[in-house]
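> tool_call: predict_assembly(chains=three)
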Amino acid sequence: MSAEDTRVPWPRWDSPTEDWMLPGDCPVTSERTLLLELAARILFPAVLVFSLYLLLVGHYGPGGGFSGGLVAGLAFVLRHIAGGSSEGAEIGARIRVRPPVVVGVGLCVAVVTALVPAAFGAPVLSSTKVSVHVPLLGEFEIVSSLALDVGVYLLIVGVVLDLLRSLGSGIERDALDAESEAAS
Amino acid sequence: MLPALPVLLPLLGAGATVVVGRWAWAQRVIGVTVLAAVSVVAAVLLVMADRGGPVVAEIGGWAAPVGIVLVADRLSALLLLISTVVTLAVLVYAIDQRIADYGRRTASTTFHPIFLVLSAGVSLAYLTGDLFSLFVAFEIMLAASYVLITRRTDARRIRSGMTYVIISLTSSLLFLTTVALVYAATGTVNLADLAERVAALPTGLQTVLALLVLVTFGIKAAIVPLHFWLPDSYPNAPAPVTALFAGLLTKVGIYALLRTRTLIFPEGHPSVLLLVLASVTMIVGVLGALAQNDLNRILSFLLVSHIGFMIFGLAVTDAAGAGGTALYVVHHITVQATLFLVSGLITRRTGTVSIDAMGGLAKRAPLLAVLFAIPALTLAGVPPTSGFVAKLALLQAGAGDGVATSVVAGIVILASLLTLYAVVRVWVRVFWGEPREPLPDNDPDDDLVVGTARTATPMYVATAALVAVSLTIAAAAGPLSAVTTRAGDDLVARTPYLGAVLGQEGAR
Amino acid sequence: MTTVSLAMAVVVAALYAVGFYLLLQRSLMRVLLGVVVLGHGANLLLQLTGGPPARPPILGGSAEGSAPLADPLPQALALTAVVITFAMTTYLLALGYRSWVLVGHDEVQDDLEDRRIARRRTPTASMGEEADEQGDEVGVDPGSAAASGDPVGDRS
């Protein structure tokens, strides 16, 4: 019965043995489930693309920078839940951009968009339409307030990432520290 | 265009200071530059509003009853100017305190952005011509203040911070309720539009809405009996934060009361109620100050007491009352912020906030004694100072407005005398007597470093600059009170504001 | 002049009552729930000001000759208010956690000065003694979860 020795203990029966997470490998193998990781792997890019769609259609249809940013943030939340958040697997460590910088850039983009019309003599925050003809795809209408939406999008994504870092990973790290302190 | 800058520039600065979060010097340069620029814009706005009437900016090009407008009339431009100058001085003080405590290179990712966001919220609250935007402005301002008051928390600060946050949230939700009810009754949230539609409502409904507004802003302005959170929460924050809150936040509440009372509910608030509230606030505040031994708590109670002076100005319905209130707000923003900054300096010298444990500081720090004495006497209203000018304006307004007002004017004088007693008591205990050794710093890690060597000179300079501003107000009392008198006339007449916002049709 | 339906009025009243009741509790978690419920009440009230239900939204189609459209302004206002309430909820959660880390529980405590005045002690406490006194009070607080200890070091 040598097979029994290599059998996984039952609480771990669905623990993944391979790297499913994006991007790259995940150093923590405990407390992972295959189902969630696979779902996260499939859903993560799809949700991000959907959030971009929401961002772009936001001027005329339901959507916009805020809801798009929240949806993108949810993609990261899913990844955080599936992949765990210990050191190294933390999202901030992967992307190499500190979340506050994303927040700051988003805020700057939004405010600059608000101020730019004033340079052309129009009221603050007013917007204009530009029609672009793209070969093969046809006519596009780009509204200048899209830049504002992009700023809001970045702002929200940054806020969600920062929340994951401080309230997600931070609290888990605190709990781990407390456990190791209690054990020693 | 121009009225939008005091809101947008600090927001842009906030974004930029987050991006450059690693470089402390860049944060400092951006913060100071932005606030200096906003001061200049505010000064320009004041001149424009004083010469040519209210300056209106339509956001996104949508005209008044539909879109959001920013309006800078004499009152809002004046308060914006003084608030920004005080904010700038407090920022310089805070920067130098941080350099003195942590060294030149340590950057704080949160302080500068939050500080600028708070400034943007205050500017928006002064400038907005829209009740819901006023709610948003209060939320921006308060959210920033929550972060500032609970930053670097220890157990003591988190307790006081919690009180502050919960009370403020309650008042915000009340404000939201008020906005909903006002919209249900009138179908608009534009202040100028409201001015006309509320007048058509039944008197009872007007009074209910006015009282809701009074309670909402009364909590924010700390009117007795809605003041209890203030002496509990403010004293525990770091000195610059307390100075900023004491100088600005309560006064924004007073501004909102002044604006809504004169513009929307000229008949709504019962003056008798306001007179009673003013008397109770003045007396309870100053008696609370006399019962305390904690320097910051004394100043907080004096702040509450002096809110009563402004409520008294509100209760006087004519233009002189509105103008007197405006002048008093300008004076009080400056002097209260200065006092808390000086208190921070004193605490750094002595290591305690208890005035019983201090003594003889005048020999060790004569400059500090002078820096405390001038704003303290200004607060009490001793003649050549700006406090005297402001109180005189209030009393003159009150004297011509009936018997009840004259009685309360007597209470104003009594409260001023008690204030004088309170500050003299502080001054004697802190600066006279036998010099005592500073207490040891019981927590070396916090940002309170006791001792003489590490108090940076720029902190003194920033405080002295605010004292100078206060003295300038006294020296320029003639032109300034002329401006506030014109502002009061505008407020009571209402036509300049309505005409500027709604166009010719509204000025009928 | 339209009036609000009775059911909605009752719901708003219930939300406000529950919200204010929870706000008066000691535990910050209950206060947080109170803020959430009260926020829902306020937002529902804001929605109700937009006129009777079942009106078509303003998006798409022409309004000519058809039924009156729903008032979009309260919806926009409520959306903004929802976002603000959401942010405040997050902040309160973080504050509650911080309080639990620092103090060991999330109860809203009395003002120390109030207690001292109530006891009429001789007011000689310096700042150092004040901090000591507070430390004692945290220690003896029956509701404190101090047994679990301070889970983290200084994170500030």
